[in-house]
Specification:
- It is built from eleven helices and 22 strands.
- The protein is of the alpha+beta class.
- β20, α9 (349-371) and β21 form a beta-alpha-beta unit.
- The longest helix is centred in the N-terminal third of the chain and has 23 residues, at 87-109.
- The N and C termini lie far apart (48 Å).
- It binds zinc ion.
Length: 428
């Protein structure tokens, strides 16, 4: 393997070196599992395969904590590191080195120390925009049931439920949104361009006709809507009381949740103290934006999605989830992407990232929802956050088979944790 997403590399490391591993990037960086990396072979790794690149420099700036510029390192106790990079990170690193050298020569020629230190700090802030921010107390909440909004330092049960925590959309992201809304042209495109060969995509005239109808209807609706940037977005909180559809897709996620869920159920809900910035925040805010937009749709064909439940026999648990929308009785799930691969043909990473997301996330989520409804297929609405281009793909539950195999393995591996969770559910 030469090129793969970070998640795949972590799996590779777990299988070939040690399971207890972590990936380290820039200082305080939250790494995206979907980012695509190529591997570099250092002397310890031996001769790279054909097409692979060797690496003969220092991998660490600070051993074990800071990789050299442009690198992301997967590391585990007692095992050699796995050195990763990609084009984007290399370019960034080259740029930083250049700036740093310029600054050094400037500093040598003039300016007082304090002055240049300030400049250096400013430069640094420009180079590495922060990826999160601390939230001020009191925190902001919204009732999951009646929708009432309130401020509180600690979560207060409302309508007998734990409330949802929210954060204000940051100024930068609001700016991004306003620009997006000014430029956007919501454009429906038929799905074949991007869906050929993907798991679960069905080849059926009737389903295609419905997808097309949904897409064209939505194009009209979205372009006719008066839209404003969202003010708040829901903060993601991993702590849950019930296993969710989204916990059954990937082993790493399932493992984390099943190992902790009993503890979460016993502890009080804790507020989230930090909110994301940048792409992650825009992703969340975009979901909020679509939710608000869809709530205002006046049409007999479109409706809110209905909650679905299904019993996962292999794990012996029941899980629930809610697709975003419903078009003429068919559930619709929305996913936003930064861009579609064909919108940026020069960026080859986007193709593998899209394929990866489809396989690991979209197709599985659709398959899981389909277990809880009578439909043979559902629709996936995919939207580009850069351009507003979107497509609608009819998908069946082909991805189930692979997941069922996984669940059989997980059921055995996490028998104790599952039993403890089920016991608590039975006692409710
Ligand atoms: Zn309420």
């Amino acid at each position: 393997m030469i090129e793969a997403t970070l998640n795949e590399w972590k799996k590779w490391y777990a299988e070939n070196r040690t399971e207890e591993c972590r990936a380290i990037g820039k200082k305080r960086e939250e790494l995206d599992d979907d980012e695509v990396f190529i591997r570099l072979w250092n002397t310890q790794d031996g001769i790279p395969p054909e097409g692979g690149e060797s690496f003969n420099a220092k991998a660490w700036k600070k051993p074990g904590s800071t990789p050299a510029p442009g690198l992301v390192i997967v590391t585990g106790k007692g095992e050699p590191p796995l050195i990763l990079t990609n084009q984007k990170r290399r370019e960034e690193a080259a740029e930083e080195t250049e700036k740093w050298q310029k600054q050094k020569s400037k500093k040598a020629s003039k300016a007082k120390e304090s002055d240049s230190d300030q400049k250096k700090a400013d430069e640094k802030a420009k180079k590495e925009p922060p990826t999160s921010r601390y939230l001020k107390k009191p925190y902001q909440w919204r009732c999951r049931d009646c929708g009432e909004e309130f401020d509180a330092t600690k979560p207060k049960v409302h309508c007998k439920r734990n409330p949802r925590q929210r954060a204000e959309v940051s100024r930068d992201s609001t700016k991004w949104f306003n620009q997006f809304l000014e430029d956007v042209e919501w454009t429906y495109m038929p799905h074949r361009e991007i869906s050929t060969g993907l798991i679960g995509v069905i080849d059926d005239e009737e389903a295609d006709a419905l997808a097309k109808e949904a897409g064209e209807s939505l194009e009209k609706i979205l372009n006719g809507e008066e839209m404003t940037a969202p003010k708040y977005f829901d903060l993601y909180n991993e702590r849950t009381r019930y296993l969710r559809v989204s916990d059954l897709k990937e082993h790493s996620k399932f493992k984390r949740v099943i190992n902790r869920i009993v503890g979460w159920r016993k502890a009080k809900q804790k507020p989230v103290g930090k909110a994301p910035l940048g792409v992650i925040e825009i992703g969340h805010a975009f979901d909020e934006f679509l939710e608000e937009t869809f709530e205002n749709i006046q049409s007999d064909d479109w409706a809110k999605g209905e909650r679905v439940r299904f019993d996962c026999e292999e794990l012996g648990v029941s899980v629930g989830g809610t697709p975003d929308l419903n078009f003429k009785g068919v559930p619709v799930e929305t996913k936003t992407l930064r861009v579609f691969p064909h919108e940026v043909p020069e960026d080859k990473n986007q193709k593998s990232i899209f394929k990866y997301k489809w396989k690991k996330n979209y197709s599985k989520q659709a398959a899981l929802y389909l277990q809880g409804v009578d439909n043979e297929f559902m629709l996936l609405l995919l939207i580009s956050r850069e351009s507003g281009a979107f497509t609608v793909v009819p998908v069946n539950d082909e991805a189930m088979a692979g997941m069922e195999e996984n669940w059989v393995v997980w059921a055995e591996k996490y028998e104790k944790q599952l039993d403890a969770y089920k016991k608590l559910i039975d006692e409710e």
